[in-house]
Automatic annotation (TrEMBL):
PROSITE patterns to which the protein is assigned, alphabetical: PGM_PMM
Gene Ontology MF terms: magnesium ion binding; phosphoglucomutase activity; phosphopentomutase activity
Cofactor(s) for this UniProt protein: Mg(2+)
Xref: CDD domains: PGM2
Enzyme Commission code: 5.4.2.2
Taxonomic lineage: Bacteria, Pseudomonadati, Bacteroidota, Flavobacteriia, Flavobacteriales
The name this protein goes by in its record: Phosphoglucomutase
A Pfam family assignment: PGM_PMM_I
Family (UniProt): Belongs to the phosphohexose mutase family.
Record-annotated Alpha-D-phosphohexomutase alpha/beta/alpha domain positions: 43-182, 205-305, 317-435
SUPFAM superfamilies named in the record: Phosphoglucomutase, C-terminal domain, Phosphoglucomutase, first 3 domains
Single Gene Ontology BP annotation: carbohydrate metabolic process
Length: 569
């Protein structure tokens, strides 16, 4: 506690604003628990950058923690590009303080002699990624906490390729940040170096989105879409993209169209949560729409609902959407002709069905750690290869490589193209998905997230993962465990034969069990939230589409048995 108290007292110097000092002193005097939570650690970069609750303290998002990160980034950029005029582009979302924090970040960069392009109003994360290369910038920053609750905000850094920072840059930037004290931050802005941007970049981004996501699907005039931005940034892009691609029957949920950091109409602005799309689904049922699309606040994740075999709107999960979008893109590429350098990609906790599909098409399949920055890194590391598309189970997808992060804008258009064409052909999005199960195997997944907040919660998460590793299960749902993949040690071991393989992926706190029948169970801590996540994947053959409901229930029952075995539900 002494170390925490000393850290807190360091925020009582004249460098900090008077209201900040007053709040810290009040915490010292009156609220030990809150003081601990705010000062027991420093914000760190995770799978999605730096993200946390806003407020005063080293473990909070505020002008000082972001200022220190920006000062460290400024120092690193100046050391890396010694003979260049450095340029950085900044975007921000709808969250409380995002605009003012973005301005603070711009001022720190400008104070260090760096040219800044600052979006004049909120914009999507994919547009920020696009803008880095479009404007010839050395880096990009977006102020967002993605789908987290209203009290959160965050800070993601992009590099010259338009992808999020990855090794070695991330570690070197973090080292630079950690070498600084808060008093090293230069807040003295050079406003001549800050240029506001908007319509010109918007136009370039929208044109590219349409070019990459529009496949001239038939049936657009007869295809009804309900769209919700969930109070976020996608309202600035998706309606226009759909309009230019030829979709006329788009109903926008007006109650959720206005950007609002309180997200007043949803419990969570996360399209992974069915409740977030409930208003849009209800509207779709009311007007007889074919598809619902909803995006998270910074528009990198999309949730989709379509009509199932019974004609009712059903939300498809991230794995299902990824499979169908990738299948469609592979078909388009096959018509053009494969050149032998194509690849698709996903993450180690997403559906193994992606690999089965890659084999069927004869294209390369790459897997990465959780976080789209790793898929972006693949594109940078293999410039001779052609990235077709790829995604992750957590409702993110990327179409081609003009954006180097998950992109709900272009992916929304792609999903509509698939569904409109399927309807015109007498099929549907849902039936096309079932066709994939017949062709490549019926894979079904389930995610369990357990939230543990605060300092004690972090220790609980650490212990849960330790127990999962040190007390390995020998069988799952009657099938023997065959492989244990430990991404902390980079070793995959066949526990039946003793064979070991090296995992050629950066180390991470992830453990995966795989059984003889292909069932997979993965465990990892969230990089952006106080959660531990367990991913269950099962599979079986689907001989014909008519058996879908029966086999789907069998897999659901199997997943439930696994959760019971593991005491997860």
């Amino acid at each position: 506690m002494d170390a925490i108290l000393n850290t807190a007292k360091s925020w009582l110097t004249d460098f900090f604003d008077p209201e900040v000092k007053k709040e810290v002193q009040n915490l010292i005097d009156n609220d030990t628990d809150e003081l601990k939570d705010r000062f027991y650690k420093h914000m760190e970069f995770g799978t999605g950058g730096m993200r946390g609750v806003m407020g005063v303290g080293t473990n909070r998002i505020n002008k000082y923690t972001l200022g220190k990160s920006t000062q460290g980034l400024s120092n690193y950029l100046k050391k890396t590009y010694t003979d260049e005029d450095i340029k950085v582009v900044i975007a921000f979302d709808c969250r409380h303080n995002s605009d003012t924090l973005a301005r603070t970040v711009a001022e720190v960069l400008s104070a260090n002699g760096i040219k800044v392009f600052l979006f004049s109003e909120l914009r999507t994360t994919p547009e920020l990624s696009f803008a880095v290369r479009h404007l010839g910038c050395h880096a990009g920053i977006v102020l967002t906490a993605s789908h987290n609750p209203p009290e959160y905000n965050g800070y993601k850094v992009y590099w010259t390729d338009g992808g999020q920072i990855v090794p070695p840059q991330d570690g070197e930037i973090i080292a630079e940040i950690n070498s600084l004290s808060f008093e090293d931050i230069n807040f003295e802005a050079n406003n001549a170096l800050i240029e506001l941007i908007d319509k010109d970049v918007d136009e370039a981004f929208i044109k590219e989105s349409v070019a990459n996501g529009n496949f001239n699907a038939a049936g657009k005039d007869d295809f009804k879409i309900v769209f919700t931005s969930l109070h976020g940034t996608s309202i600035t892009a998706i309606p226009e993209v759909l309009k230019r691609a030829g979709y006329k029957n788009v109903t926008i949920i007006e109650e959720q169209a206005k950007p609002d950091g309180n997200f007043p109409t949803v419990k969570s602005p996360n399209p992974e949560e069915p409740e977030a799309l409930s208003m849009a689904v209800a509207k779709a049922e009311e007007i007889g729409a074919d598809m619902v699309v909803g995006t998270d606040p910074d528009s990198d994740r999309l949730g989709i609902a379509v009509r199932n075999l019974d004609g009712k709107m059903e939300i498809v999960n991230g794995n299902q959407a990824m499979i169908l979008m990738t299948k469609f893109l592979l078909e388009q590429q096959r018509r053009k002709g494969f050149k032998g350098n194509e690849f698709i990609a996903t993450t180690i906790v997403s559906t193994p069905m992606m690999e089965a599909m890659a084999k069927a098409y004869g294209v390369e399949f790459k897997t990465a750690l959780t976080g789209f920055k790793w898929i972006g890194k693949m594109i940078k590391d293999f410039p001779e290869s052609n990235f077709i598309g790829g995604g992750e189970e957590s409702f993110g997808y990327m179409v081609g490589d003009f954006v180097r992060d998950k992109d709900a804008v272009t992916s929304t258009l792609l999903a509509c193209e698939i569904a409109a064409q399927a309807k015109a052909d007498g099929s549907s999005f849902y039936k096309k998905l079932i066709d994939c199960y017949v062709d490549y195997g019926f894979y079904k997944e389930k995610l369990i997230s357990i939230t543990k907040k605060g300092m004690s919660g972090a220790e609980e998460i650490k212990q849960m993962l330790k127990d999962f590793k040190e007390n390995p299960v020998s069988s799952v749902a009657g099938s023997k465990v065959k492989w244990i993949e430990d991404y902390n040690t980079s070793i995959a071991k066949n526990v039946l034969t003793g064979e070991e393989k090296t995992i050629d992926i950066p180390k991470s706190n992830v453990l995966i069990y795989e059984t003889e029948d292909g069932t997979r169970i993965a465990a990892r801590p969230s990089g952006t939230e106080p959660k531990v996540k367990f991913y269950i994947s099962t599979n079986t053959k689907l001989e014909k589409a008519e058996d879908f409901k029966k086999v789907s229930k069998e897999l659901d029952d199997k997943i439930q048995n696994i959760l019971t075995e593991l005491n997860l539900g």
